[in-house]
Specification:
With about 270 residues, the protein is mostly helical. The chain has a single domain (about 50-265), classed as Orthogonal Bundle (MetI-like fold). The protein has helices at about 5-30, 35, 50-60, 65-95, 100-110, 120-130, 135-140, 145-160, 160-170, 175-185, 185-205, 205-210, 220-230, 235-255, 255-265. Belongs to the binding-protein-dependent transport system permease family. It comes from Vagococcus zengguangii. Its main location: membrane. It is found in: Cell membrane.
Amino acid sequence: MEKSDLIVNIIVTILAICSLLPLFWLVTNSFKPSAEIYKMPPDILPKSLYLDNYKELFSNQPALRWTFNSFLVSFVTTGLSVILSAAAAYAFAKLKFKGKNIIFAIFIASLMIPKETFIVPLFKIIVAFDWVDTYQALIVPNLATCFGVFMLKSFFETIPDSIRESAKLDGANEFTIFFKLMLPIAKPGIGALFILNFVTFWNDYMWQLLMARSKGMNTLTVGVAGLMQEISPNMGLKVAGAAIAAMPMIVIFVLFQKYFTKGITAGAVKE
């Protein structure tokens, strides 16, 4: 290993450790009573494994329902949005239809519009459908993601047209070509988009806060934020809630890491 590579590796390692320190501090503090969390100077590790924070979180708060809501909303929204994005990206990359370039330009332009600008009209639509405080309100408005279409279009463009043409000569229709040929080839990009979308929907706070009116419909993000706003000296309970909310994202990233690292770069270079 060259000296320059060694220096770069050391710097990257130090930065990685620094980025993990807040997570380490969050998890360790969740196993401390509130008095130890406020202690100065603080203890790096808890003196004993204090589990009352988690017991109180799941016994006195509907944390299990919040967790279920978060997983249901995040997985369903992510799965459907990835399928819709892949279908639209395939159409833009491989099919020929009138106005394709103009429509795709509109898609790209919409990425520059902040979500906050259309929350009010979107909220009025949800109220008109009488979907407030339902799973439909948390899932349906997030299904169409222009970023996913933009990202996957480059993956489908790298796939040779000869594959599609050969399948059509064998009698396959567009649905068969898309689901049985194109999707498996674009698996790295789909995996990367799955991670990005899952993290986005799991952390979505504003829209979930507007739509979930009852405490039982809250997701973990909204429920934990509510704990933070309560006037309570039990900081350990709040930290435990934040730790529970952070763990699934880490697990999802670890499980799909190989797809994420391949997907971010695989579609960047065209054959």
